[in-house]
Design goal:
783 residues, alpha/beta, Rossmann fold, six-stranded parallel sheet, 13 strands, 60% helix
Length: 783
Amino acid sequence: MDTEQLLHTATERHRAGDLPEARRLYGEVLRESPGHATALFRSGLLELAERRTDAALVLIARAAEQAPHEARHHIGLGQVLQALARHEAAAAAYRRALQLDPTDSDTHFALGVALQSSGDESGAAAAYEAVLVADPARADALNNLGIALLALGRHGEAVARHRAAFDLRPSAPGYAVNLGIALCAARDFAAAEQVLRELSAREPEDATAHFNHGIALHGLGRLREAQSCYARALALRADYADALNNLGNVCKELGEFSEAVAAYEAAIGLRPEWPLALNNAGCLLRSLGRLDEAEALLERAIQASPGSATLHDNLGSVRKDAGDLDGAIVSFRRALALEPDNAVTHSNLVYALSFQAAEPEPILAEARRWNDRFAAALTRAALTRAAVSRAAARTPAAQADAAEAAHASAHAHAHAHAQDPGRRLKIGYVSADFRDHCQSLFMLPLLSHHDRSRFEIHAYSSVERPDFLTERIAGLVSVWRDVRRTDDDALADIVRRDGIDILVDLTMHMAHGRPLVFARKPAPCQVAWLAYPGTTGLDALDWRLSDPRLDPQDYDAHYSERTLRLPDSFWCYDALSAEPEPGSLPAASRGYVTFGCLNNPCKLTDASLQLWSPVLSALPDSRLVLLAREGSQRARLTGRFAALGVEAERLQYLPFQPRDAYLKAYRDIDIGLDTIPYNGHTTSLDSLWMGVPVVSRIGRTCVGRAGLSQLHQIGLAGLAADSDAGFTAAAVALAHDLPRLADLRRGLRQRLEASPLMDGARFARHVEAAYRTMWREYRFRSS
């Protein structure tokens, strides 16, 4: 039998499934003709079919060398290389085949798969598009193209391709799931939920369908239903790590923290080095105050994924909470180096610097960098649209030219009624902290006393878990909008449609702030207040509220905004309860003075400890009470004090506690010691409310002048020192004067109640007068 007859017979046996005989006959052909390309190729296909990929590669590569003009040889080479996960080499082989036969849609498809496997989503999309030129109704190409487009962030196009694939094959579960995933990515959760609900009903044993249905329900805010879907997916597939992770997320949002921790731990148990679950667990443990565990999990996640900016950012937040400010700033800067366009990380850095910087210049410089990187272009575009809209409104002849730009921002600064200077103004407050949060201690006095005849009050709330204070605040405003699930563009449009005249940022660069809403300039006057008395750095913020003690006249250059000083105080405080009472002076029965500082540990800087140590040295029997979590945080503080000569037995640590227990802790403190460069703010007012005077050190930044501002209002400005020596002298003198301390303890609450710091009606009139000043200036500039 000659070679060609042998080859023919071998091929027949191959097709008939008699693989041993086919292999024997191919071998005979190759013994007769070792370079026979067809025999090499078909022998390679046989080896590939039996998963002997290394042998297949040798044979098919030789075939391609012997007959390089045969497209099928390069296609076969691509198949075996793909089986070996050598995706880039496979793509090169398919490209060589397409040079020989550019019309082969199956090869274009195979090229797309290889490119997608190598991470080249753009190349894959182009390959699938080539398939669809020849066969527009090829469902698998539409499906794979949708996946590639989704990875490229082209969500609308991805939805269209997945919809087309689904319409062609509506009974294919994978196509329905992929359509649902694409709709979720495009934030069309309602459409996704419908598709995935129908799929789950049709395929009740499909864990993937229930899992993705849960994602859609989660996006709609239907948390209990999402929780049930994830649980159903896990009942069908107990080792479904993604479902455990998402179950943890929804439990966290529901406030079921122990269940969330358990779900994350189970996910990590299945995939021990999974950065996503490690990150989610770390973030939850941070919010629960379990900082050592949180830090360990995040560091473990970084070991697995060192290039993740998110992990470094979250580690920075944990370190900040733990009082490791230097480490936090290192982490934030590392995160920004990895992901320079992350506005939230950059906000975290700006805020952290306000605790570290003793001078205002570094804070302003970083805030301005934030503005230049994220906000400036948005602000310029908004101001241009507003100018075009005003010009069109004033000049009918210009309306045609302005139509397109005006349409883009139809409500931007239209304010047709702006010419009435005394009309009722619409004030909008934007915050994620209308809840059981220190911000409420200051918002309630203002909102309770706003003049509703002259001001219409709107609140834009991003509160994740509303509570009793959320409900109380909502009852004090004219319009309440829950905007937690509203993106910045959409929220800016809502503010415009509401016709807000003055929009007030209450969060700035703190967690869950919405500075990019303000960057879009949705209101003609925009103001920063309350979060902290610093700067946002934003061109779009016109004003910041302050007071004369926080900001002497020569401080204006420290801020990007114009400063409007309220006559009395930046703060107006409501303790929200008369209980607990201050109690008697501890030193009177103990025979020694107890100092205390219940500020957040991130304020316990080296400068603060160095400021306090001479006081403690001068009073060797005194004690110091601090707020710090158990574990390494307390150990580090003890070591830092030891280096300054303060023994561990003189230190007492308290855990973070609910407000009632936290206030009761002041009953064991005689004198408060303030922090530097960031003074106590709410904490100092709480201390005064509980009869504990605070000795403060005046800093160079406005956050370091809070003690002076507050003590001035109650006639105790002498306790705010302008030097370290003055601070020591004031604290030691007060400690030696127990009668004065006892008198202060009896009368501080009444002093506070009688001062502007707790006069809500007076404060509201001052804030409203400030708003009127801003509005007059806006009208003057825009007339």
